[in-house]
Amino acid sequence: MRRRDLVPWISLVVGAGALYRVVYSPNKSEIVVFGLIVAIAMFLFRLRARLYYGAVEVAFGVFVLWDAAGKGRGDFSSDFSNDFSRFQLTVVLAQTFAALYVVIRGLDNCYQGCPKVGAMLDRWVGR
Question: How many CB atoms neighbour CB 14 within 10 A?
Answer without folding.
Answer: 17
